[in-house]
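Worked example 4.2. Below are the chains of a multi-component assembly; read each line carefully before continuing.
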Amino acid sequence: MKLTHIIPLLTLTTAVYAAPQTFDFKDPKGVNNAVFKLDAPLESINGSASGISGTVLFDPENPAATTGKIVVASESLTVPNPMQKEHLHGANWLDVAKYPEITFEAKSLANVKTEGNVTTADATGTFTLHGVSKELTVPVKLTYLKDKLSARVPNLKGDLLVIRANFVINREDFNIQKGQYEDKVSPTIDLSLSIAGASVTK
Amino acid sequence: MKRILQLLAVLVVLAAGATWLATGANRGWTKTSVAVKTLDPVTEIEGITYEKKFLPGVDFLGAAFGGAALLAGASLFFRKPKAN
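Applying the procedure described above to all two chains together yields the following structure tokens:
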């Protein structure tokens, strides 16, 4: 076999067995955020969390095999009203001192559709909030931005993975004031996650 | 004294109302910070930061009106000055 035949074969073999890339979601720019919204009679409670970390294993050749864990620091949940924030963090609601993390650990993807660099799927995994873990399936959109890390963080080369997810949870499922204050605070919480992770090329 | 307390009550209501209107007539709860959104051009993620800003809400108005009512109520304990 000639060398000119071996090189493409080696390239193909490497591509087939390429390991998934690890994307780190600790954002140095602090743009990553999770937005939450609860309806209330006077004014809906809107807030966001910025303390996001975690890693996702993503293979651009096989997005269906994506797994990972995203962590939100409970302490980073913010609302514009200081009293609401105090209540939200307090022992009667999220109890951030006792439950410092909100996590989602994705174990599998289903209904995977990829068009160009965008993959949509339903991610199934374990969502943990207020010390309660539940199996959830959430629609996710993954956008793979090859070689775009340097455009965001100068002096670093690599790829970016943007994950977006919108889903609704019921606070009662996570023992947050179960059956209480439903006339003042909605039992359902709308969550919207917009995060970017980086995979640095060595 | 009666007149002073009544004037103070009116002033409190006017000042609170003017402040509330001047800061955008926020019909929700009082806020001490506002969310500012910025678009990350690479990832197209809307980043959210909070800027310190006092936005009085209906609770602020309620407290001001309550204070004014107390002042007006207190004025009832004073006698009307006698005309000479």
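Take a moment to check your reading of the output against the notes. Residues 2-75 of chain B form one domain. Residues 7 and 74 of chain B are 12 Å apart (CA to CA).
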